[in-house]
Specification:
95 residues; 0% strand
């Protein structure tokens, strides 16, 4: 992911690594504000300030954000989503 190893990246934090990585993932993947990330984590039971999320995101380097953006689907990618047929007692009511 970056120049820092995982052990040095998450030292001296009082939150578990899973909470930190989820907050950073939310910020970089969905371009949320820090307060939005704070509210989403609060719904999961993690009480954290938006300032802490800002510090985590500045500590995790930009390479992580670039990695997430490369995995995001492109506008020209294929999306195969067709109509769904619902059958009730071997009958299709919408035909």
């Amino acid at each position: 992911m970056g120049a820092l190893s995982a052990t040095t990246r998450y030292t001296n934090h009082r939150f578990p690594v899973e909470s930190i990585t989820h907050a950073v993932w939310l910020y970089f993947q969905f371009c949320l504000r820090f307060r939005d990330g704070e509210e989403l984590l609060c719904e999961r039971g993690v009480v954290v300030t938006s300032e802490a999320i800002r510090k985590w995101c500045s500590k995790i380097d930009q390479q992580y954000a670039n990695h997430l953006r490369r995995r995001r689907p492109r506008p020209g990618d294929k999306w195969d989503l067709d109509n769904m047929m619902l059958t009730i007692k071997d009958e299709c009511p919408y035909v």
